[in-house]
Design goal:
Length: about 80
Amino acid sequence: NLGKTKEWYTVTMAHFQSWADKSGIPWRAIKPRLDDTMSKARELWPGALKALPMDEAHKEGPGAHWARLQDDFTIKAAK
């Protein structure tokens, strides 16, 4: 449960901010880590997935999942 939702496809940075506020953790301490994590995920995961020795059909799953996430967390799959 994150920010009153269990629907991962609706989660935005606002949910994390609300969670931080309710936890008494300064948002300024959380947001840079989320931004860094998403930057690294967007940079590394598409290429890593493409390079994995998996059936191409199985590689479509993560890309489909990433595409359904809100803009704050979406990752574009490598083509």
